[in-house]
Amino acid sequence: MIAANLPILQVIAPLLSAPLCVLLRRPGAAWAFALAVTWASFAIALTLLSQVLESGPISYEIGGWAAPFGIEYRVDMISAFVLVIVSAIGSAIMLFARHSVASEIRRERIYLFYAMYLLCLSGLLGIAITGDTFNLFVFLEISSLSSYVLISLGQDKRALTAAFRYLVMGAIGATFYIIGVGLMYMMTGTLNIADLAVRLPAVASTTTILAALAFLTVGISLKLALFPLHAWLPGAYAYAPSMVTAFMAATATKVAVYILIRILFTIFGGVDVMAGMHVGVILTGLAVIAMFAASTTAIFQPNLKRMLAYSSVAQIGYIILGISFASETGLAGGIIHLFNHAVTKSALFMVMGCVVLRVGSVNIRAFDGLGARMPLTMAAFVIAGLSLIGIPLTVGFISKWYLILAALEKGWWPIAVVVVLSSLLAVIYVWRVVEAAYFRPAAADAPEISEAPASMLIALWLMTGASVYFGVDATRTLDVALGAAKLLLVDRI
């Protein structure tokens, strides 16, 4: 009985647990409860992925109402993969959260913080599992509204400004998305994703559907922070509590990319939007600009959370580049980079959280001599930084290798060169931190500090270890990514 209802439990468990955190009120109890819920969600996601790999896509009809009239939860290869990414990161972050949140959030607000966190987690999981475009909008708003609150709880007053900017940009993105959904409904009479894929080709050439595609693409591009629609992201990542930054950087934009993939390859799967409507060329251009412009900007940032935020904009460029190829190898490269970048960037932002806890700053000058004073933390930064660059034996190398292969398959060797050159920019901004930590002495008046607490280091090294393990043995993740790419492309023109 429970196994048959895992799709709904994936969303309902964190959703109903959020108000229970409010009732618990005590910070320690709220943390322990949220920890149990997130790990239960991770177990459910792994079970769903296993079932999909064994038996194929899962369709779950809410209330017994058959699709397309009822709401359908649908789990296929890519949605199951995204569920695992979100729940895995969410679980590891909760191990990290206890000390980090206690140091950065006022005690009387901590239980509310965990309630918002579970709401955000539920929204992100719901986006990945729903088979209905309007239901997707609902989950998008649940995750977004809770994210605004989480960001605003940062210690710096600029966190409120960052949250407000994100709210404005997020509201515009959501409005564009729902307008696109309304236009599609006007022409097809359905909101079900699978049903839309069947009905859209007959009306694809109409102005209404072309406008719908434009609204959907721009709206979701705002949510995923595709250059030049990324203005909200650096401030949000820089001033949010460290745990929130680590979670959002690894999940929120990745789930938005998943929505874009669903739009281009499932809803419009029977329409040649990538070549026929020139969407692929536009995405390729924006991706290349993002890879260079954001990486170059990252080099000059003294605030290292802001530096990593611009790095995220560049990494989103790599993901979009893979999608823009619209080939099995390219799409697999983009999908695998969803996982690889989530693991790497969560580790890097957890390093920032450890440093904030002990040093109180993420300015580049605060990292002087930290290699000797916080050796485990800074060793994790070096390893995750190598993955960000794309050094062999790390997950970053796997992603970029597949993107280069995809470019060469198409005969686009200049794009392959661009991927390599843009990766060299990451060497510069990662080296800035390594130089400060290992080659500059600490200030004479620097206080004595110790490593972060064990629970934070365990979470940090889980993600750091994953960035190496899945770089050495990428069989499992690549099989899922390639399988998802094949299924997404099978019905396309």
Give the overall shape.
globular
Radius of gyration from CA coordinates:
21 Å
Distance between the termini: 40 Å
Number of helices: 19
pLDDT averaged residue by residue: 87
Domains (count): 2
Biggest sheet architecture: 2 strands, antiparallel
Q: Spatial order of the strands in the main sheet?
A: 1-2
**Helix/strand/pairing category:** mainly alpha
| Fraction of residues in β-strands | under 5%
Residue runs with pLDDT of under 50 for 5 or more positions: none
Name the helix and strand elements from N-terminus to C-terminus, one letter apiece.
Answer: HHEEHHHHHHHHHHHHHHHHH
Description:
The structure is a single chain. This protein has 493 residues and is an all-alpha fold. It folds into 2 domains: 1-268, no CATH class; 272-493, no CATH class. The protein is built from 19 helices and 2 strands. It is globular and about 70 Å long. The model has no long low-confidence stretch (mean pLDDT 87).
